[in-house]
């Protein structure tokens, strides 16, 4: 059984080099969810322009080489504009677009009062519009911050099945599974490696692979393919691989 219909469940189209889109298509990654991020944003307009660029220009560019892009919209903790509430107010309008499939990438890096306020507002938008929400987890203090975010999601009344906790690793996978959220599995050296994934497959089996490509750390636009190859080498059941490498994302985001 061949693995097909691969979907990268979390990437950043505005940072992917042209050759990166080519590499994705060559590896069979023909669909991807592009999450929003505007590093150091100061103005709401920066996000509005970003949403337009990734759901318009980059979507067309990627489609021309064989990658269908879908978009998640939201304010990333790496760039919270002073007038962030204006972005939140507009999110429902962006969600009406056919290729916009959820809220993301949102979350917290240090659980400051501002980060909490911005995340809560976006969780409320996700809940009110019944769409998936992709949550970033930080490099440090991970269990504490994930705990705060899960408590917040429960308080807001998020459907756990629509909550993606990304960059999952052994440290937080128990919290994610206990909540019933979907683990986002970012495959790269400094996150989840194919070896750790396969060695602990029962913990990560409800997850969705992604490459989370950006230009702020070493990574690979088609990085998730390494996990697919390793799972095949280790004789993981093809149905399990298919779910993790695209099937689950197709259902969650309605892009099958
Ligand atoms: Zn990301």
UniProtKB/TrEMBL annotation:
Alphabetized InterPro entries for the sequence: Metal_Hydrolase (IPR032466), TatD-like (IPR001130), UCP005295 (IPR012022)
Gene3D superfamilies for this protein: Metal-dependent hydrolases
Gene Ontology molecular function: hydrolase activity, acting on ester bonds
Protein's UniProt name: Uncharacterized protein
């Amino acid at each position: 059984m061949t693995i097909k219909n691969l979907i990268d469940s979390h990437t950043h189209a505005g940072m992917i080099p042209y050759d990166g889109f080519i590499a994705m298509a060559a590896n069979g990654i023909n669909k991807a969810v592009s999450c929003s991020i505007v590093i150091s944003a100061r103005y709401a307009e920066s996000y509005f322009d970003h949403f337009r660029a990734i759901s318009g220009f980059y979507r067309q560019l990627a489609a021309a080489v064989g990658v269908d892009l879908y978009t998640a919209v939201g304010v990333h903790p790496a760039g919270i504009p002073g007038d962030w509430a204006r972005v939140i107010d507009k999110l429902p309008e962006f969600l009406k677009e056919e290729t916009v499939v959820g809220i993301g990438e949102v979350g917290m890096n240090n659980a400051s009062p501002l980060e909490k306020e911005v995340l809560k507002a976006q969780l409320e938008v996700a809940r009110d519009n019944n769409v998936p929400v992709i949550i970033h987890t930080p490099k440090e203090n991970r269990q504490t911050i994930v705990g705060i975010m899960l408590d917040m999601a429960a308080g807001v009344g998020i459907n756990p099945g629509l909550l993606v906790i990304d960059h999952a690793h052994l440290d937080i996978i128990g919290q994610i599974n206990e909540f019933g959220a979907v683990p986002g599995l970012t495959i790269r050296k400094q996150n989840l490696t194919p070896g750790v994934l396969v060695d602990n497959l029962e913990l990560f089996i409800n997850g969705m692979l992604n490459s989370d490509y950006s230009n702020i750390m070493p990574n690979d636009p088609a990085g998730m393919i390494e996990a697919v190859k390793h799972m095949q080498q280790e004789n993981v059941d093809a149905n399990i691989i298919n779910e993790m490498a695209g099937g689950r994302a197709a259902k969650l985001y309605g892009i099958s």
